[in-house]
From TrEMBL:
A matching Pfam family: AnmK
Gene Ontology biological-process entries: 1,6-anhydro-N-acetyl-beta-muramic acid catabolic process; amino sugar metabolic process; peptidoglycan turnover
Name assigned to this protein: Anhydro-N-acetylmuramic acid kinase
Gene Ontology molecular-function annotations: ATP binding; kinase activity; phosphotransferase activity, alcohol group as acceptor
HAMAP family in alphabetical order: AnhMurNAc_kinase
Keywords, comma-separated and alphabetical: ATP-binding, Carbohydrate metabolism, Kinase, Nucleotide-binding, Transferase
Protein role: Catalyzes the specific phosphorylation of 1,6-anhydro-N-acetylmuramic acid (anhMurNAc) with the simultaneous cleavage of the 1,6-anhydro ring, generating MurNAc-6-P. Is required for the utilization of anhMurNAc either imported from the medium or derived from its own cell wall murein, and thus plays a role in cell wall recycling.
EC class of the enzyme, as a word: transferase
EC identifiers of the protein: 2.7.1.170
The organism's place on the tree of life at top rank: Bacteria
Length: 372
């Protein structure tokens, strides 16, 4: 038995999610979960680094270390909260903050990805081994480096009685489809499209709020069919799997373009239509793979938007749509726990990518190890 901490900082920029996990063999038990919000100034810095118009190498270089200090501090806090020393952890697994993800060769650029949050700083602060930078190894063998969590989902969620779809709704939505009694090489996983990203940008634009808390704005809106059709005509929606996307396609620039194109649509109608877009992007992506009976288990921040969950149920009437809490787990902690699963495989020199999901040519050991 050992303990490890997983760190996740996703595309939604909510903050730093930290999970303390007990490892017994190949069983992973969540001991504690904490989420530490970014201060406004840090969030603005990260946002600047993500936009081509405002990013620069000096900013990214500094953020690589600044974020690492925050990640290390988050580990120290959760250990202190649980009355343990960080040096007693077997390892820390850090995803890092994605600055840019370019999954395929295009426009004179090679396929590549960049997550920042220097592992050397985290190791020095926590006095333990750090596993980080999981995505590049998959890309080195022809994969898209995403989705990153299907292996952990297979380990923790496979079912003998039904097909299960693990539907994460963070900034981007992604699905992992696990067949009933399915083997690892039968898993299919892909990004579906925007998750909360467009909704959050609209809330910032119209209300200066970070997200649609409890679906309070979406519930007051009416769907605009013209806008919805325009959303659904985005080229990514029709792409075949495996596929991956990010802020590059559905971020602030895209939202600003749509706002300029439809200046007469009210705030709540815009938000309601964007919420339905997320639901429809998910349903259109997973429907070709349904093998009933199917359970779709939603995790991530989107699971707490009741309007989005109801729209998903309407779009997938034959599917049992649930959230992580319905099966006794945590929607918030899911991806941080996944980092522990991946890190544990890396420490033991075992592969954890899923070629059927990423398009990689073979199984590989993910991540880089920084020893203390």
């Amino acid at each position: 038995m050992s303990y490890a901490v997983g760190i996740m900082s996703g595309t939604s920029l909510d903050g730093i999610d930290v999970a303390l996990v007990k490892i017994t063999g190949e069983t992973y038990e969540l001991v504690d979960f904490q989420s530490y919000s970014f201060e406004l100034g840090m969030k603005e810095k990260i946002s600047r680094s993500l936009a081509k118009e405002t990013s620069d190498v000096e900013l990214i270089c500094s953020l690589n270390f600044e974020l690492a200090y925050l990640f290390g501090d988050a580990v120290l806090k959760i250990c202190e909260h649980n009355k343990m020393n960080s040096s007693d952890l077997e390892f820390v697994a850090s995803h890092g903050q994605t600055v840019y993800h370019h999954p395929k060769n295009a426009n004179g650029l090679v396929s590549s990805t960049l997550q920042i949050g220097e592992s050397s700083i985290i190791a020095e602060m926590t006095k333990t081994t750090v596993v980080s930078d999981f995505r590049p190894r998959d890309m080195s063998v022809g994969g898209q480096g995403a989705p990153i969590v299907p292996f952990s989902e297979y380990v923790m969620y496979r079912s003998q009685t039904s097909q299960r779809i693990l539907q994460n709704i963070g900034g981007i939505s992604n699905a992992t489809i696990i067949p009933k009694n399915g083997a690892l090489d039968k898993i299919v996983a892909f990004d579906c499209g925007p998750g909360n990203m467009i909704i959050d940008e609209l809330c910032r634009h119209f209300y200066n709020e970070e997200y649609d808390r409890d679906g309070q704005y979406g519930t007051l809106g009416t769907v605009n069919e013209a806008l919805l059709q325009d959303f659904m005509s985005h080229p990514f929606i029709a792409k075949p799997a495996p596929k991956t996307t990010g802020r590059e396609e559905f971020g602030k620039q895209y939202v600003e373009e749509m706002l300029a194109k439809y200046p007469d649509i009210s705030s709540n109608d815009f938000i309601k239509t964007a919420t339905l877009f997320t639901a429809k992007a998910i349903s259109s992506a997973v429907t070709p793979y349904l093998e009933l009976p199917t359970e779709l288990i939603v995790g991530g921040g989107g699971s707490y938007n009741p309007v989005l969950i109801e729209l998903l149920k309407e779009e997938l009437p034959e599917v049992k749509v649930m959230i992580q809490e319905d099966i006794g787990l945590s929607s918030d902690a899911k991806e941080a726990v996944a980092m522990v699963v991946l890190g544990h495989r890396t420490i033991n020199k075992l592969p954890s990518n899923v070629p059927s999901a990423t398009g990689a040519s073979r199984d590989v050991i993910l991540g880089k190890v920084t020893y203390y």
